[in-house]
Amino acid sequence: MAGVAYLLLPISGAIAYFTASDARTRFHGLQAILLGLLWPLALIVCSQITPGATQLAAAGGAIVWLTFMVLSALGLDPRIPLAGKLLRRLAEGDPTGRTEAGV
């Protein structure tokens, strides 16, 4: 189910996040939402630079998208750099990262 979260960015990610009961699928749902927002943003920014930059952003985004979809379907958990840990905590229901003892 985690690999399906990446199928139609960010729509399938939202569906996976809100309907899944396990933290792994919810995590991949959140990542799919974030990837579905960052990729078009990168295309817009790069379109203001050069057509070559736009093509590079499109190809790079497609590679990341396919890699995340395939690896998560195979049972691996690739993470978006800098955001992966926070998204994992959100998926597990603890955005602060604190334990039950409050430490």
Q: What would your notes on this structure say?
A:
- By secondary structure, the protein is an all-alpha fold.
- Helix 1 (11-19) runs antiparallel to helix 2 (23-47), helix 2 packs antiparallel against helix 3 and helix 2 runs antiparallel to helix 4 (84-92).
- The mean pLDDT is 91.
- 64% of the residues lie in helices and 0% in strands.
- It has 4 helices and no strands.
What's a quick, concise take on this entry?
The chain is mainly α.
Throw out a few tags for this protein.
elongated, 103 residues, mainly alpha
What secondary-structure arrangement, pairings included, does this model have?
Blueprint: H1 11-19, H2 23-47, H3 51-73, H4 84-92
Extended strand count: 0
Termini Cα gap: 33 Å
Global outline:
elongated
State the helicity in percent bands.
Answer: 55-70%
Q: Give the integer mean of the pLDDT values.
A: 91
Largest sheet: none
Low-confidence stretches: none
Structure classification: mainly alpha
Beta content: under 5%
Order of helices and strands: HHHH
Radius of gyration: 15 Å
